[in-house]
Amino acid sequence: MQRPRRLRKNPVVREMIAETRLAKDMFVYPYFVVPGTNVTKAIDAIPGINHFSTDNLIKDVEKGLRLGVNKIMLFGVGDEKSDDAKSAYDPHSLVPVAVKELKKNFGDDLYIVTDVCVCSYTSHGHCGIMKDDYIQNDLSVELIAKMALNHAEAGADMLAPSDMMDGRVSAIRKKLDGSGFVNTAIMSHATKFASAYYGPFREAADCAPNKGDRKAYQMDFRNGNEALREALLDEAEGADVLMVKPALAYLDVISNLKQNSGLPIACYNVSGEYSMIKAAAEKGWIDEQKVVMETMHAFARAGASIITTYHIRDIVENNWM
Ligand code: PBG
Ligand code: ZN
C-alpha cells in the first residue's frame, strides 16, 4: 500500500516537501497614473487600487518599496486622445514624465515596467490605428515602436507591449537597439486573450473600445496551440519574458509555455480576477487571504516565475506570504 499521507502528517513535514514557494521578488504591482497634482482617487471597480497623480504615485511607491514591492507596471490614463494617438509617443505625456520622476527619486531601487499600448490614447479606444473599421497592423506597429522608444528614453527598465499586433516585438527591439537601448528589456504580452476579465480595468484606464471588440487582434480563448505559436514567435522576435494574460483561466497556457520555452514566464492576474475575489471576500463568502494565496501558488505551480497582480500590496502589508 502506498501512503502519500505520510508526508502530510504535520506542518513541518508539509513545509519540507512543498514543491512551490513564493517570494516577494516574483511580484509586479500595477499603477495607474493620471494628470494633475495631489490626486488619489479610488477606482470603484478595482477596490483598493487608485488613480494617482505623479506626486502621490511617488509617495505610494515609496511605501511599497519599504515593504519590498520594488517592481511596478505603469499605465497612463487621461492624456489627450486622437485618431493617430500622438500623445502615446510625446515625451511630455504622463508616462514618460512619471518614469523620469520615479527614476529621479528611486533610481535602480525601483524596476519600472511600462505598458506599451495606444488604446488609452486613441479616440476610438482600440489598440492601434483604425482604417476602414479594421485595426491596421503595420501602421500600428510603427506607432507602438515609437511609444516604446519614448518610454525607454524616459528610463523605463522593461517594456510590456500589450497590443497583440504581429511583429511588434521585433519592431520594438530594432528601434531600441538602433537608439542604444540594448539593455531595455521586453516582456511581451505574448498570449493575450480577448477576455471579459478586463472589465474593471477598462474603467481604470479609460480605454474601452467605443465600437466593436478586440477579437481581431487579441486571441480567442478557445485556442491553446495558437497561444504557444504566438509565444514562440515573440521569443524568436527577441522578447526577454513571455507573459500570459489573463492568468487564472489560462493556467494550461502558462504550463505549456513553461515546458516549451526557456524564457522566464510571467502571468498577469487581471482586474476581473482580482475584483471577483475582493467582492466575494467583502460579502464574507470566502476567506480573502486563503483564496489569494492559493491563487498565487497556482500561478507559480503552473510555471510562472513573475506574477503581476493587484493583490501584492495586501499580501505584503498583511504578511500573508
Ligand atoms: C489594454 C490593456 C487591457 C489590460 C491591460 N492592458 C485591457 C484590454 O485589452 O482591453 C487589462 C488589465 C487588467 O484587466 O487588469 N491594452
Ligand atoms: Zn491596448
Please give a quick description of this structure.
The protein has 321 residues and is an alpha/beta fold.
- Mean of residue pLDDT values: 96
The CATH architecture of the domain at 22-238: Alpha-Beta Barrel
The strand order across the widest sheet is: 1-4-5-8-9-10-11-12
- Spans where pLDDT lies below 50 across 5 or more residues: none
CATH topology of the domain at 22-238: TIM Barrel
The total count of strands amounts to 12
Residues in helix, %: 25-40%
Strand content: 15-25%
Protein model, in words:
- The protein is an alpha/beta fold and 321 residues long.
- The chain has a domain at 22-238: TIM Barrel (Alpha-Beta Barrel).
- The protein is 39% helix and 18% strand.
- It has eleven helices and twelve strands.
- The chain has helices at residues 11-17, 54-66, 94-106, 137-154, 168-178, 199-205, 225-237, 251-260, 271-282, 288-302, 312-317; strands spanning 27-34, 40-42, 50-53, 71-76, 111-116, 129-131, 134-136, 158-161, 185-192, 241-245, 265-269, 306-309.
- The protein has an eight-stranded parallel β-barrel with strand order 1-4-5-8-9-10-11-12, surrounded by eight helices. It has a two-stranded antiparallel sheet with strand order 6-7.
- Helix 8 (251-260) packs parallel to helix 10 (288-302).
- The longest helix is centred in the middle third of the chain and has 18 residues, at 137-154.
- The radius of gyration is 20 Å and the shape is globular.
- Bound molecules: ligand PBG and zinc ion.
- The site of zinc ion has 5 residues, from loops.
